[in-house]
Here is the input.
Amino acid sequence: VKATSPLTALSLSSHRLLSLGLCRALSKTPAALVLNQTQHCKQLEGLVSAQVQLCRSNLELMRTIVHAAREVMKACRRAFADMRWNCSSIELAPNYLLDLERGTRESAFVYALSAAAISHAIARACTSGDLPGCSCGPVPGEPPGPGNRWGGCADNLSYGLLMGAKFSDAPMKVKKTGSQANKLMRLHNSEVGRQALRASLEVKCKCHGVSGSCSIRTCWKGLQELRDVAADLKTRYLSATKVVHRPMGTRKHLVPKDLDIRPVKDSELVYLQSSPDFCMKNEKVGSHGTQDRQCNKTSNGSDSCDLMCCGRGYNPYTDRVVERCHCKYHWCCYVTCRKCERIVERYVCK
Ligand SMILES: *[C@@H]1O[C@H](CO)[C@@H](O)[C@H](O)[C@H]1NC(C)=O
Ligand SMILES: *[C@@H]1O[C@H](CO)[C@@H](O)[C@H](O)[C@H]1NC(C)=O
Ligand SMILES: *[C@@H]1O[C@H](CO)[C@@H](O)[C@H](O)[C@H]1NC(C)=O
Ligand SMILES: *[C@@H]1O[C@H](CO)[C@@H](O)[C@H](O)[C@H]1NC(C)=O
Ligand SMILES: *[C@@H]1O[C@H](CO)[C@@H](O)[C@H](O)[C@H]1NC(C)=O
Here is the structure.
């Protein structure tokens, strides 16, 4: 395989990551993968047949989806940098999946984020003209506000949601594999992810007019960055609802485990199994433990040394930080800075 293919630069881990959000699909994908002919879709091991068909009929879409995998990794890491569980097991997939393969709160988050990311990437690709099947989103029906006019290229959210759901949800719709409860959980959480994406659509504007006077503003509807959607989903993760698979009427549904009789809300993430506290390393439950994790001595949040280290204590070490300093503005128009070194004390969990 030639090193010039558009996908060669992708790390193996992003294929693995994608696999995770999508039931291990793509997990054995070769690192140097060429995706410019339909028969290459067969090389993407672990895809269910509906996904292979989508790949064959739309290779550009598939490239966008693989790109989304990388974005999931970044956004997940960022959202959970201050937590004991920090997304790192995503990279170890498919060999280290227990925290994510079981129906835990963490897997709820990852499925929701993966679904949001795929639809996000597709909607954005429509805007940048990377996909032959779609173009800019619709011009909004409501007036744009005083001094504004609609213009630019809106993200085609409806196309993103449609095609993203087709791909993301395909494995959960295959009859034979996996428990029904897990599939329902994943489908529900993927839908929550797409709902969070919908909620992130906002009006964005650009100024025009003589010498930046901004007398006219052109506006369009664009999606927030994936990291903002991830932050929203993290809030939902923190208040996720434990559910059980129970008969309600003629069929079995996921219903909240505690005794308040109400259906699951469309906006809430749900999980079936409690997670470990992630304090100690225990591969059997998918916990890496927090030994050697950096903690923050002055914070009183989840990254505080108390919480992060689970009361085991922590070790200080010194770190050298180089930063720009004594910056001076020169007329006209540049800035010069010096480099300063600073010694900072940091802490890692025992
Ligand atoms: C697909 O990519 C390979 C490797 O870059 C190249 O040799 C081949 O000509 C390409 N095929 C098509 C149909 O573009
Ligand atoms: C995207 O939005 C446009 C409206 O501008 C709409 O007509 C179209 O059906 C949407 N989907 C695609 C695939 O372009
Ligand atoms: C995430 O946690 C793992 C396991 O504790 C650790 O090895 C890794 O360095 C952490 N990653 C970051 C970016 O803190
Ligand atoms: C530690 O937490 C404090 C308070 O939340 C914050 O101001 C500071 O930037 C944090 N330090 C680091 C190294 O993250
Ligand atoms: C952290 O401590 C400060 C000062 O004691 C307090 O105002 C703040 O609400 C605390 N934050 C959290 C998350 O507990």
